[in-house]
Structure formats: C-alpha cells, structure tokens
C-alpha cells in the first residue's frame, strides 16, 4: 500500500504529479491511500515524494477528464482523490469511459462536478461586499460559506470583476485578498470577524423593495434560486418575508388601480406625429450635462453630446463615447472616430456636413489595472438616453440616419436587428428619416488584420449609398461645435462604483 500525502485539500498539481508517477509504475487504485498534510492528526507531516516520471507514450489523458478533475478536486468529499485516480486507471483500457453516463464512477464524478459548478454560481450571485475603512480610503469585505473548497478557483473571477477596488472574501476555511495589484490567499476566519453591514445597505434595501414585482412572485422558484442558507448574508433578506406576505394584496391593488398614463420605460421608435422639442441643440447639450437618468454619469468624466450642423441632412448615431471621447467631451475623436473620418472622406461625405452623436451619452467602462475598457451598455441605459437622441434628431430633422452598430440600430428602431441582414440598403420609413444600418468603426479595429481591408471597403460601400442625400452643389456646412469642456479635477478623480 502506498500513501500519498498532498499539501492541501485543493492540491491539484500535487495529485496530478503523484497520479502520473503511480500510473507509470502501474500501481492499482486499491493499493493507494490518499491523504492531506496534517489530516491524520500531525501538523508536521511532510508530503510523500512520488517519483515524477512522464506517463507512457501510448497513453493520453482526454481533455474532458482534466476539466472534470479540476472541478472534482475542490469538492468536499474525502473520496475525490481516490475516485479520480480510479477513473484515470480505468481510462487506460476504456478510452471512451467518460461517455458511459451510467457507469458508477463516472456518474459519481459528474455529480460532484455539477455540485461544485452550482456552488461557484451561488458564490458569484450571493457574495455581498461591505465597505470598511482602510489605510488608503476604503476597502470592501464579504463573508461567504461555500459548500466546497472553491475560493482559490473563483477568486480570479472577482479579481477581474472588481479590478479597481481593494477587497477581501472571507470564508470559514480560507480567504482571498486583492490589493489592486496582487491576489493573495490566507486562512479562514470566523463569521464574527466579518463586517455585519455598512451605511449603504438601507439604500440597497429601499431599491430592492422598489423593484420587487409582486405580480411575478413565485415562492418556489425564489427558494430554489436563492436558498435560505444564504439569506443571512443578504441585506435584502430582511424584506423578503414581508414582501411575500403582502404580494397578493399588492397585486390585487395594482389590477384595481386605474392606469396612470405614465409612459412605460423602454425602447421604442420615434412617433411620426410627436411634437419636436422646442429646446435648441445648445440648450439640449447644456441640459444633458446634468442628466442622472441612469448610473453611468457617476463614473464618466462628462456628458458627450452630439456635434455637427444643426440643419444637417444626414445624422450618424454610434453606440457610446469611448475613453478619449469621455476626456475630450466630443464624439468620435478616438481611434474609431479617426477611422470613421477616413471612411466618410473616401465615400464622399465630409464629416463637416453630417451630425454625429451616440445612442448613450456617457462612457461605460470597467477598470483593468489602470486602463478603462469599453463595456457594452445595458438596455436600461440605452432607454435612459433614448429621449436625448430623439430630441436631437427632432431638432436636426435629417433626411437620413446612419446607425453604426447594433446598439444604435436598437435605440433608433426599438428592435434588435441583425447587422448583416440589414446593411447594404436604405430603409425607408413612413413619417421618419430614412435609415441605413451598418457596422461600427470599432468593429473594423477588432477583426483580424487580414480581413480589415475587405471589411473597410464594405463599410465605405455602405456609406456611399447616402451621397444622394447631400446637395451636390452645396458647400460643406460649418459644424456647430460645443464649447470646449475642461474636465474638473473632481471628475478626473472620480472612482468607479463599488462592487
């Protein structure tokens, strides 16, 4: 009998090296005892050194087995090491073993992997960070009690998700800490060492109560998706019993109440008979600077409104400002904007003759170290900015709108449209400006370099369809540029929202 001692409960590399050596020596699974340092009572055990030799050249480990093993290794079951080695041993003579779902060993390993996968999902969904004072401003600490030993495996997800914040995730067995530069792991702690709340939780509870829809309540689904074992870590859990008990009465009241006439939030196409706003473009631009209709304003440097001739016959609508646009306060001045300028010139459409704007007026991003990387806006954020776009177009009254990308097309039409199916022709709309849908210039910057020339030519060809909308004998109009906006120090110092 050989005893293999691993360094920790999640020592996948140690298990793999030992399994390779055992397999090379043809040691049968029933001749191996697996243990972890200190698991038999001694705090000073040293791991047994299995001779590291390459696996036989005639044997290859299936990729799906490695993926399965990485999941199973963090399961809490003490049999996991032996089970995985037994599967590895059997794969030598049964190369298609993992496809036999009714096999007892395979079924057990798959069930363990699914349990780990569910635990990972629950941790992503139910971790709640609480703000605490720290040496340099503040940090965020969360307490969680996973079923399995998943902290090491899931910590990189939180590191990427909250790269710009300092945080710690505490569990009974281990902890993970991110200081903005390095991810570290430490021992577990007691629940009493974790913060019990912060000043913003009352605000979060009010928000949760306001979005709770009693008419869509399904208690059984809520319990399956939000198990009660996690409730004590969730600030909103204090509200759930009351919200559930009042749901039936509130639903009846909603049905009995008369319609309020308030417009439903959401995307919809412009109405032909809608009265245009009486505010000028400059007045709209000034008003938009104080827009707080969605959370994007909090992290952006400034509102980026449209620019161009107030009587332009063609309006171009993009998705949202990028990093350089956010700092400059003007649309399409970064790499995508420079590419757009070149394409417009080659298509015979000087930028000075068109009005250029975006469906969303604030820069949405996520921090990766010190870099601000573009992040696609949500439907709710597109809807929040929709009124500004409508009022811009109502003032300009263009004959043609060019939608660059799916977000712009959705904002203008209220529908999700396939770009490839919609591009290459003008869409005539009753009572509304004609529409041309094509790709966003940023798409051309992301595709492989060997395809860029071909796709750029297609983009220019799309733009050439619009030349007839300009007067052939007219001089390029002078664009109405907004006054320069110098970012305030407090804008540039604004930190991203907390996790």
Which spans have pLDDT < 50 for at least 5 consecutive residues? 41-47, 49-57, 261-277, 472-481, 486-499
Q: Structural class of the helices, strands and pairings? A: alpha/beta
Shape verdict: globular
- Tally of alpha and pi helices: 17
Helicity range: 25-40%
Q: How many whole angstroms does the radius of gyration measure? A: 30 Å
Largest sheet: 5 strands, mixed
Question: What topology, given as strand order, has the largest sheet?
Answer: 3-4-5-6-7
Tell me the total number of β-strands.
14
From the N-terminal CA to the C-terminal CA, the straight-line distance is: 50 Å
- Report the β-strand fraction as a percent range: 5-15%
Mean pLDDT: 84
Labels describing this entry:
17 helices; 14 strands; 499 residues; disordered C terminus; five-stranded mixed sheet; alpha/beta
Please tell me about this protein's structure.
It contains 17 helices and 14 strands. The two termini are 50 Å apart. The longest helix is centred in the first third of the chain and has 23 residues, at 104-126. It has a 5-stranded mixed beta sheet with strand order 3-4-5-6-7, with helices on one face. Helix content is 37%, strand content 13%. With 499 residues, the chain is α/β, with parallel strands linked by helices.
Short description:
The protein is of the alpha/beta class. It has helices at 12-24, 63-72, 80-91, 104-126, 151-161, 201-211, 219-225, 240-256, 281-288, 323-328, 335-346, 379-396, 406-413, 419-422, 441-446, 449-464, 489-492, and strands at 2-6, 32-36, 130-134, 137-143, 167-170, 174-178, 183-187, 314-318, 354-358, 365-368, 371-374, 400-404, 426-427, 434-438.
